[in-house]
Design brief:
Helices cover 52% and strands 4% of the residues. It starts with 5 loop residues before the first strand and ends in a 17-residue tail after the last helix. The longest helix has 27 residues, at 65-91. By secondary structure, the chain is mainly alpha-helical. The protein has one domain (3-8, 36-318). It has helices spanning 39-58, 65-91, 99-109, 117-129, 144-148, 158-164, 170-173, 176-183, 185-205, 209-231, 252-257, 264-269, 286-297, 308-318; strands at 6-9, 96-97, 300-301, 303-306. The radius of gyration is 20 Å and the shape is globular. The strands form two sheets. A two-stranded parallel sheet has the order 1-4. Strands 2-3 form a two-stranded antiparallel sheet. The protein is built from 14 helices and four strands. It binds zinc ion (ZN) (2 copies). One zinc ion (ZN) binds next to helix 2 and helix 4.
Length: 335
């Protein structure tokens, strides 16, 4: 039965994927250290954004309807590879997946064109282990621009390298699916992110090459920014019902665009929950709906989730007293 695959934890489930002891106190590391610019990234990102915005505003209406439909389909499918695959399955081990599902998730992850799976996972584990310290790859204390995209425009803070290298990645190194997709990432990614979605409109419904390439650039830039929303918007704006001492927030807008990754105060409080949210509101959590569907087929199993009591107790003890969805004041149930 599907429901029997969900493990309800009364206490916080252990997160065994990070090294517990560190050689130096992270709080003593200066937040700003020399981080030379990576000019190649700055130029490429700038050109992509200029082209995407220019073509979106001046040429998108020239595109055929199917070209319009293909872009969000491709973007959300790649996005699902990030959220249900790289994030919830691999980075947090919040559920387990059988081989066909792991292959499928790694495959669609490559449609997003971000980076090697193991790099994404290490960065994300580092982000959770050292949230908003100098070792956080996209430390939100350094402002909106840095946490959104600026962190990709400069060499990493030495603390990110030092502490990130200590994150336990043994499970990832032992996963043959990740090893395969990492090894052949560049050709697979180029094909799935850029080549095939350019060819489909041209050969299937006679779109022009020019508009087909524009659509790919717009979708690529869109998905990059949507992913970055989680690191910037969802670490700045919104309420904190589960732990007011954590900076990450509940942000329904980000959840809408990211298939449910904007319930970020909850996610940083219970990172091992496969839903990455308390609410079962699947219109704003497509990734959880997908994992539930996979659990029904038996391809996903051991879905982890805290008990309702633990969530309520945590919110009562540490939260800011707001309701998780829209930030309105909330009457906590007394025990
Ligand atoms: Zn975060
Ligand atoms: Zn996470």
């Amino acid at each position: 039965m599907y429901s029997s695959t969900i493990t309800q934890y009364e206490e916080r489930a252990p997160e065994p994927r990070v090294e517990p002891d560190q050689p130096m106190e992270i709080k003593d590391v200066p937040r700003r250290q020399l981080q030379p610019f990576i000019y190649r990234n700055i130029i490429v990102l700038a050109i992509l954004h200029v082209v995407a915005f220019y073509t979106l505003f001046f040429h998108s209406l020239e595109a055929k309807l199917y070209t319009w439909l293909l872009s969000p389909f491709w973007g959300y499918t790649g996005g699902l590879g990030i959220t249900a695959g790289a994030h919830r399955l691999w980075a947090h081990r919040s559920y387990s997946a059988k081989l066909p599902l792991r292959i499928f998730l790694a495959f669609i992850y490559c449609m997003a064109g971000q980076t090697h799976l193991s790099k994404w996972i290490r960065d994300h584990r580092t982000h959770h282990r050292y949230t908003e310290t100098p070792a956080d790859p996209h430390d939100a204390n350094r402002g909106f621009f840095f946490s959104h995209i600026g962190w990709l425009m400069m060499k990493r803070h030495p603390a990110v390298k030092q502490y990130g290298s200590k994150i336990d990645m043994s499970d990832i190194k032992a996963d043959p699916v990740i090893q395969f997709f990492d090894k052949y990432y560049i050709p697979i990614m180029i094909l799935l992110t850029f080549v095939i979605p350019t060819l489909i409109p041209v050969y299937c419904w006679n779109e022009t090459w020019r508009l087909s390439i524009y659509a790919v650039i717009i979708r690529y830039v869109w998905l990059l920014n949507v992913t970055f929303f989680v690191n910037s918007f969802a670490h700045m704006w919104g309420n904190r019902p589960y732990n007011s001492s954590l900076r990450p927030t509940e942000n329904p807008t980000v959840s809408f665009f990211t298939l449910g990754e904007g319930w970020h105060n909850y996610h940083h409080s219970f990172p091992w929950d496969y839903k990455a949210a308390e609410l079962g509101n699947f219109s704003l959590n497509g990734s959880a709906a997908f994992i539930n569907l996979m659990a029904k087929t038996g391809l996903a199993y051991d879905l982890k989730s805290p008990s309702k009591e633990l969530v309520e107790k945590t919110a009562l003890k540490k939260g800011d007293g707001t309701q998780s969805l829209w930030g309105t004041k909330f009457e906590h149930k007394k025990y």
